[in-house]
């Protein structure tokens, strides 16, 4: 048996490997081994903890006020073809009716 790290969620030592990820039998949490995460470089997660990649489509989860705009970006707005960047606002995208925007990943979920 290989040296499998404890579950990051509940710290259970009984995790097992399934395909390319680890699974915890006690809480059901699934995670990717850290060795694979370090190779990828920039890791951006959405509001639900799903890993985002360039080109994904996301949905805004709450109304976002925009400086200089008469109305906010409404919750439920779908944004296609995102680009991940370093920084506080780690998603660059183009939103219909608003133009180019920088969003925080904590206000979107993967579509």
Question: What can you see in these coordinates?
Answer:
- By secondary structure, this protein is mainly β.
- 6% of the residues lie in helices and 29% in strands.
- It has two domains: 1-41, N-terminal domain of TfIIb, CATH 2.20.25.10; 44-110, SH3 Domains (SH3 type barrels, Roll), CATH 2.30.30.
- The strands form four sheets. Strands 1-2-3 form a three-stranded antiparallel beta sheet, with no helix packed on it.
- The protein is elongated.
- The protein starts with 15 loop residues before the first strand and ends with a strand.
Terminal Cα span: 37 Å
The H-and-E topology, N to C, reads as EEEHEEEEEEEE
Report low-confidence residues grouped into runs of 5 or more. none
What is the C-level CATH assignment of the largest domain? Mainly Beta
Total strand count, please?
Answer: 11
**Strand order of the biggest β-sheet:** 1-2-3
CATH superfamily of the largest domain: SH3 Domains
Rg result: 17 Å
Query: What's the average pLDDT?
Result: 87
Secondary-structure arrangement, i.e. CATH architecture of the largest domain:
Roll
> Strand pairing plus helix content: what structural class?
mainly beta
Helix content: under 10%
Under CATH, the topology of the largest domain is which? SH3 type barrels
How many domains comprise the coordinates? 2
Tally the helices. 1
Shape: elongated
Properties at a glance:
3-stranded antiparallel β-sheet, mainly beta, 11 strands, SH3 type barrels, N-terminal domain of TfIIb, 1 helix, 29% strand, 2 domains, 111 residues
């Amino acid at each position: 048996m290989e040296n499998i790290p404890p579950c990051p969620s509940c710290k259970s030592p009984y995790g097992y490997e399934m395909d390319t990820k680890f699974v915890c039998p006690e809480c059901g949490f699934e995670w990717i081994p850290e060795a694979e995460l370090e190779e990828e470089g920039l890791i951006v997660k959405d509001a639900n903890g799903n890993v985002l990649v360039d080109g994904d489509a996301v949905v805004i989860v709450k109304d976002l006020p925009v400086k200089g705009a008469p109305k906010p970006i409404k919750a439920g707005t779908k944004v296609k073809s995102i680009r991940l960047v370093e920084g506080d606002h780690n998603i660059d995208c183009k939103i219909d009716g608003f133009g180019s925007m920088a969003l925080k990943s904590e206000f979107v979920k993967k579509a």
